[in-house]
Amino acid sequence: MPDISNPKNTRDIISKHNFNIRKDYGQNFLVDGNILQKIIDSAEVTKDDLVIEIGPGIGSMTQYLCEAAGNVLAIEIDKALIPILSETLSSYDNVEIINNDVLKIDLDEMIEERRGERHVKVVANLPYYITTPVIMGLLEKTHNIESITVMIQKEVADRMQVGPGTKDYGALSLAVQYYSNPTVVANVPPTCFIPRPKVGSAVIRLDIYREPPVTVKDPALMFALIRAAFNQRRKTLTNALTNAQLRPALTKEALGNILTDMGLPDTIRGEALTLEQYAQLTDIISGKQ
Question: Where do the H-state alpha helices sit in the chain?
């Protein structure tokens, strides 16, 4: 089978099927075989793996995955792409194409029905508009996934891996780092896509923790505190949490005392706390319920 990701082949496939690229689905097809191979290598895909691909498009990455993986489950929301995928991937018997919205299906159930003894990995060129909900859904709701290796907007990838005190550090950073160890493995310019996106992209690998790196009694409360802190990130943490009307309710004075007991100034902002400190803060507040 010719390399689908070759720019000429990609254009020929689009033209042959009179396919209209949809901006509302964030369709940008990768046309650089070296980058695709870099993604496969970074994900460490083997024949022992069941790989979940979200948004296969015309099959550019799927082709590489079929060559490397034991089985591939490709989930595509655009029904106009299904006959194209059926044609471009017709020489592979280890791929299953599902026409559905990944945000609306029970992916956990799908995986359990298919994985057998295989390792489960997610590898995808994610549409930018669903990057955060897809990744958080995979981290929070899907079990038995070992790693997620995805092409996403560079700005979002940077936010996922940074630490306290940086401008990109936020609620997404803390959530991703609670569930996984993120590593950016490649930066990809707009010239590697048809059509070209307006921003740069990056490939990030998230190695899923079997156990979170911090222990916290009430993770839901911790993330409520984190969201409240970064919703008003220019305010002090005591002001942000007081204004958020969280439960249990704590006065500004009480929050200041807690921070002092933690060895932190009561004027500190939420963007300065580590994941470990948010866990400690959560446990103290939980103990006051």
Answer: 7-16, 33-43, 60-68, 82-88, 107-114, 131-141, 154-161, 171-179, 219-231, 237-243, 252-261, 275-286
Binned at pLDDT 50, 70 and 90, residue 251 comes out as confident
Do 124 and 173 share a domain, yes or no? yes
Phi, psi of 97 (to 5 degrees): -105, 125
Task: Note whether residue 87 is domain-resident.
Answer: yes
Q: Which residue has the tokens 């083997």?
A: 46
User: Does the predicted model carry a pTM greater than 0.85?
Assistant: yes
Q: What is the mean pLDDT of residues 180-190?
A: 97
53 part of a folded domain: yes
| Domain count for the chain | 2
CATH number of the domain that residue 229 is part of: 1.10.8.100
Interhelix angle 171-179/131-141, nearest 10 degrees = 40
Number of Cβ within 10 Å of residue 231's Cβ equals 14
Residues spanned by the domain of 246: 219-286
Task: Report the pLDDT averaged over residues 88-114.
Answer: 96
